[in-house]
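In line with agreed milestones, the collection of sequences with tokenised folds has grown. A representative record is reproduced below.
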Amino acid sequence: MRKSKLSTQILWVGLITILLTIIATMILPLVRERSLRREKVLADMTRIWGQPHLISGPVAYGAGGAVEVQKFKIDGDIKTSVRRKGIYRFPFYAAKLNMTGKLGASANRLVVLSRSRLQIDSATLGKRAVFFGEQNENGTYAYRANVAGQSGDELKLSLTCEGLQSLSFTPTSASAEVRLKSDWNDPGFFGDFLPAEYAISKGGFNAYWKLHLPRYKAPEEKYLHLPAPIEPDVESVDAVSGRRTEVAVATATQPTAGRYGVNFYQPVDIYLATERSVKYAILFIALTFLTLVLFETISSAEIHPMQYLLAGTALVIFYLLLLALAEYTGFTIAYCAAAAATVLLLARYSGSFLLSRRHTLAFASVLTLLYALLYVILQLEEFALIAGASTLFMALAATMYLTRKLDWYRTH
């Protein structure tokens, strides 16, 4: 290949790489559209199966205002399943919660608030049964009971709640201990108070919160309300260790209530993973074309710009295949299937112009390695940048090594 021809070929390859990268980024709006469609289906599902629960209480009130519930504890056992609607799947939970505490003073009223409907199975104060009435107040379920509680009376409350996605609580006393266990093995802990201890295994998770807010006091009953609904941060589970001290210090002196809980999110968001993979399109296309340019340079093969364009188009269609398949099979299976189909297609096609079975197999091996590296990068999340940069550096180093004895000015 002469110098002028090589320069022209590299220019063509660069232009085609830019064009295909632009086309690949046009897939991003489609990914977001499918993601919004999923959120709409989720909104429909919550109307059927229940909103994510946010529970506040029980809060005790006496003649002088709010009464502290001392030694307040929550023990929860959560069973999960996956509910389907069309091609979409969502985590559904049924939680059995047992709440206990002791009145710090006389009380004549108990209040529990919830974002979604609760089923109160039993309630006692001292040795007397307590019966709650339910009201829906502007979308908040309020449960109130008239009691005749004395200082030191033990409060026991057992309730069941069912819903989608998340379960959370707001502080209602100066100190509290919360223990949750579940068979869901991919929890995301979120909110103003993260677990003091937690353990996650294939069989599920156990989490323990210990709250100590010496300046906190429950508001008057007319001001008692739930925080505005927010979306749990699904990535906060990865930052539990790093954020726990910071969050504890920031909230220990605040008199206002926050929220804390667990999100039962699915471990791989196919739309987020697909979007991240598209963002690496320029890296992937450039490395693939670099491989072809090297084969063309060190061998007698001649590759037409149209052949580069067709090969690059297959690389772009990979992302459409990935998105379409992932909605049915999950991300990992879809990724393997789309990558395998693309590698087989390009290996078969490259055999027509590489003119060497050895070069064709080598090209297919490089493609397989690139797809494997891309998958690893997608799984690394926090280390994705350094992994991508390292991949580029190693590709450059390999190119330099393979062409170290090549005379770029002469015909080959």
